[in-house]
Every structure is written in structure tokens, then in C-alpha cells.
Specification:
single chain, mainly alpha
């Protein structure tokens, strides 16, 4: 696990290096710095992301020759998603286990960029494919996302960066992210060790599932805040990954607030194409969340995690609840979310 402070220091160094440049130059600095960061901590991963970027460029250059209505042009970019299998299967191909830092998130961003470039009504010029490696190696979002398209960064760069200047709240939220990722997250781990460790109270691990969930959340939320708000230092705006998920009223509200960029990705790029091709909305929803589960990890635990979330999203009652029933729905949501997280990450099926 990469120390969030190490990434933050790297981002500050990139900020200083990018200071004299315009928006395009800042994007280039973030890309080169992202490659350097991954190469230091996970050289095999750096090579794989570079290879994926090349795949994306070559695929766009090849498929842009097809008619815009061609199925090859519409769906050919989905071949790039096969790269996420490397995270779980690399030990069989390479014969050894290596650090796969950033590959899962980079795969999604490279795919999104390639897909959007091929879908552009104005077409895509060869020089625009440079935004594919920008998406793959974008420094602030390497470890935990959020996921986004290099086309979004390209548009912002063309406009000279974000319309709003860096605000005081951006610095505050970066600090909040550092506190969550560097202080609160390890504190949760220490508490788990005291309660369930061999030298602690000896509680079964499932008894501390809520603390394990908070530990996961603080790492994920903290590093998302760092990614989102340090990006503003360079003039770029990323999608918000978390929107006060503790306020979720039910499972649908949870996914409107939790890892929002990934939830929006699977609905746009997995659910919608299936639904448009005649798959029922409920089945397409289940398929989208099964994909999300297997994207996390090729394990039975995460398959069940994705299947369960998909079924809940597809069949959760649509009517608004009030009073005691609303409280029951909220409690049930969090019991389900924490239980499924435990099964996927820590249970026997993980």
C-alpha cells in the first residue's frame, strides 16, 4: 500500500514544476509525474499502463476509419477493459507477484477516453490521442480514482483550466483528506488489532466489520479528497467521488453518494449499452454491478458483492418511505453494505 503522504509530496513537486506552464503544459507535467511515480513504486505496472495507453491510441486510430454507426467503432474500445484482468491473473502470466498499483483505475480512464474519442461527432484527430496516456497516468487520481475521461481534461485545458480559481475550501479539503488517510485510517487498523488481533481481545473478525468498513472508507474518501482538490491546483476539476454517503436513505441513495464516478461509469458504459440492445433494465443493472464487483477483484466474494448490489438496485422498492419505515430502511441499507463489504474483502470467499 502506497503511503498517501508520498503521493501528496509528489503532487506538490509536480505543482512546483508545472507552475510556469499553461493548461496543456500542466497536463503534461501531471502525466510525466504520474509515470515517474508509478515507475518508482511499481515498475511493472508503469509498463503495463504505458502498454494500455499505446493499445488505446492504436485502437482509436484503427477504429476511427470505420463508419460511426459501425459496431466495431461503437464497441471495439471495450477490448481495452480486458486489461483489468492483469491485476488478478498476472502471477500466472509472469510467474511471480508484482505490485499492480493504479492499473484498475487507469484501465477505466483509458477506456473512457478512447470510447469518447471514437464517439465524437466531429471525429478524432491523431494528435488528440495524446489525451489517452494523460488519462492513464494522471498523477493525483492514480491510487483510488476518481474515474474520468481524458477528454474531460482536454476540454478543460482547451478552456485554459477550471473557470473558478483555487478556493480556501480546496486547501481545507486536501488537509481533511490527509488527516483521514494518514491518521484516521491507521487508527482504525490499530483498533481492529486490539479487538480482534492475536494479542488483543480475540474477537472474531466479523465482530469488528463496522470498524473495518470505516477503515476502508477513510482511506478511500481521504485519498479521493486529495485527488479532487489538488487537481484544482493545476486548474482541473475532477468528478466528486463521495457525497456524504452516511446520509444514504436506501441502497439507491447509497450509490448516488458512494464512489459516484464508478457507479456512473457502470451505468453509462455497461447498463446503458445492454439496455439499448434489448436487455431488461433490471438484468442490465445486475450485469453492471457484477462487472463492478469483478473489476474490484476476481473472487467469489466480490462476485457475490456485485450480484447482491445489482439485485438490490434492481428490486429495491421505488416508493418513498417515512417515519419508522424510513429509519428501518436506512438501518437495513447499512447492515447490508457493511456485511457485503466484509464478505468481499475479509470473509472466507474474499
Amino acid at each position: 500500500m502506497i503511503d498517501p503522504l508520498a503521493l501528496f509530496i509528489f503532487i506538490l513537486a509536480a505543482w512546483i514544476a508545472a507552475f510556469p506552464f499553461g493548461a496543456n503544459g500542466k497536463a503534461a507535467v501531471l502525466t510525466l509525474s504520474g509515470f515517474a511515480f508509478v515507475a518508482i513504486y511499481a515498475p511493472v505496472a508503469a509498463g503495463w499502463i504505458a502498454l494500455m495507453s499505446l493499445e488505446g491510441v492504436l485502437l482509436v486510430l484503427l477504429l476511427k476509419r470505420f463508419d460511426r454507426q459501425s459496431n466495431w467503432r461503437k464497441y471495439g474500445a471495450y477490448l481495452l477493459l480486458l486489461n483489468f484482468l492483469f491485476v488478478d491473473l498476472h502471477q500466472f502470466a509472469l510467474g511471480l507477484i508484482v505490485e499492480t498499483l493504479a492499473i484498475s483505475f487507469s484501465t477505466i480512464r483509458i477506456f473512457m477516453t478512447s470510447k469518447q474519442q471514437l464517439a465524437a461527432r466531429k471525429g478524432v484527430e491523431a494528435k488528440e490521442t495524446v489525451w489517452i496516456p494523460v488519462a492513464g497516468f494522471y498523477l493525483p487520481a492514480l491510487i483510488v480514482g476518481p474515474v474520468f475521461s481524458g477528454v474531460d481534461i482536454q476540454k478543460q485545458a482547451k478552456q485554459g483550466g477550471a473557470a473558478e480559481p483555487v478556493r480556501l475550501s480546496d486547501y481545507r479539503l486536501v488537509l481533511q483528506g490527509l488527516v483521514l488517510a494518514i491518521l484516521v485510517n491507521p487508527a482504525c487498523g490499530q483498533l481492529v488489532a486490539k479487538l480482534a488481533g492475536e494479542e488483543g481481545m480475540g474477537l472474531p473478525l466479523f465482530a469488528v466489520a463496522p470498524i473495518l468498513f470505516v477503515q476502508l472508507f477513510t482511506a478511500f474518501w481521504g485519498q479521493s479528497l486529495i485527488a479532487e482538490h489538488t487537481s484544482r491546483f493545476f486548474g482541473f476539476r475532477l468528478p466528486q467521488n463521495f457525497d456524504e454517503p452516511w446520509k444514504a436513505k436506501d441502497i439507491k441513495d447509497f450509490w448516488a453518494r458512494w464512489h459516484r464516478s464508478m457507479a456512473q461509469f457502470v451505468m453509462q458504459y455497461i447498463f446503458l449499452p445492454l439496455n439499448l440492445r434489448g436487455v431488461s433494465p433490471r438484468l442490465a443493472t445486475v450485469a453492471a454491478f457484477v462487472f463492478m464487483g469483478l473489476w474490484h477483484n476476481l473472487s467469489l466474494g466480490y462476485f457475490l458483492w456485485g450480484l447482491s448490489h445489482g439485485l438490490l438496485m434492481a428490486y429495491w422498492p421505488k416508493r418513498e418511505l417515512d417515519g419508522a419505515r424510513a429509519g428501518t430502511a436506512r438501518a437495513a441499507t447499512w447492515i447490508i453494505v457493511i456485511t457485503l463489504s466484509y464478505i468481499a474483502n475479509y470473509g472466507a470467499l474474499a
